[in-house]
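User: tokens in, sequence out, please.
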């Protein structure tokens, strides 16, 4: 907090009025980084926009703020304020955006009707969080594209032969 106060030229009490601790500052930085450019995109194919959104999630976690947020979340209790902020401001927001895109893809005829959207969302996002927390491989566009392509093999509308 002292470093933030020094860099911004304000006193620590001013910083503490906005954020209760350093973890809250790091989460605020992460959430600012995580603002999605795809949420405003209303035109274009839903699946192409979903691909961009998954890439954005990976890009956000590749930042210093993203890696710091992941470490904090991994260390936090599930009922902590930090975990609640991450869940409500990032996880739910990403899922809501993904839900809309999947439903649009069904309406556009790119996915079969009756898709279990909640299960599909878990199928798409869980591997990102797993890779983020375990760190066993790169979390990048190649990975998110592979996850989406594998998921779509099961979700796509099959043409009758």
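Assistant: Sequence out:
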């Amino acid at each position: 907090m002292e470093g933030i106060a020094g860099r911004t030229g304000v006193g620590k009490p001013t910083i503490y009025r906005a954020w209760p601790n350093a973890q809250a500052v790091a989460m605020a930085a992460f959430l600012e980084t995580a603002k999605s450019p795809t949420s405003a995109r209303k035109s274009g194919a839903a699946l192409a926009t979903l691909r961009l959104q998954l890439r954005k999630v990976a890009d956000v976690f590749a930042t210093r703020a993203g890696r710091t947020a992941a470490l904090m979340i991994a260390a936090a209790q599930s009922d902590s304020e930090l975990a609640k902020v991450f869940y409500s401001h990032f996880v739910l927001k990403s899922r809501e955006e993904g839900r809309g895109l999947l439903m649009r893809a069904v309406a556009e005829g790119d996915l079969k009707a009756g898709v279990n959207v909640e299960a599909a969302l878990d199928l798409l996002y869980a591997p990102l969080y797993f890779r983020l927390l375990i760190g066993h491989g790169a979390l990048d566009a190649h990975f998110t594209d592979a996850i989406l392509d594998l998921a779509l093999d099961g979700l796509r509308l099959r043409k009758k032969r």
